[in-house]
Amino acid sequence: VDNERKDLDLNNKDIDADKMTRFVRINELRLVTEYNPVTAIGVMQSSLELNLLLITDKMSPKHPERMRNYRAAAELFKGKILFVLIDINLKSNERIVDYFKLKKSQLPALAIFHVPDEEQEVWTLDELSVDGVQDFCNRFLQ
């Protein structure tokens, strides 16, 4: 997403499979990056200053359709906004839900976050459409 290259020093003698896997996981960013303890470093170190978080339940029957639309919207903002998926079923993600002052009953939600000044906006939603995500992002960008 960032078009920034990171190199792993393969001349270092302590490189093993675990360290190489960790390097790749930290530095790979897809159109939608699932937030977890492994990808957190890559998300936090991204040069993109805007993060759009889809805070949702991955076990929901609506999840596959939401993800299709979320990925399609991510294509429209590639290189401008980092699209992140937050699974509310992970205990480690509860603090993120608390940070945006959301309750589980208000989810799924989109939260857009401008990293430098911590400006944010939250949109609770029933349906996740490409047009809805695009409008939400464009309003925030303006």
CATH-derived topology = Glutaredoxin
Please give the CATH architecture: 3-Layer(aba) Sandwich
The separation of the N and C termini measures: 22 Å
The oligomerization state is: single chain
Q: Number of helical runs?
A: 5
Topology, number of strands? 5
Q: Round the mean pLDDT to the nearest integer and report it.
A: 88
> What is the global morphology?
globular
Order of strands in the sheet with the most strands? Answer: 1-3-2-4-5
Text of the CATH class: Alpha Beta
Structural class by secondary-structure content? alpha/beta
- Per DSSP, what share of the residues sits in E-state strands of 2 or more residues? 15-25%
**How many structural units, i.e. domains?**
1
Helix content: 25-40%
- Low-pLDDT sequence parts: none
CATH homologous superfamily identity? Glutaredoxin
Largest sheet: 5 strands, mixed
Please provide the ordered H/E string of secondary-structure elements. Answer: HEHEHEHEEH
- Could you tell me the radius of gyration in angstroms? 16 Å
Organism: Psilopogon haemacephalus
InterPro entries: Thioredoxin-like_sf
Family: Belongs to the protein disulfide isomerase family.
GO cellular component, one term: endoplasmic reticulum
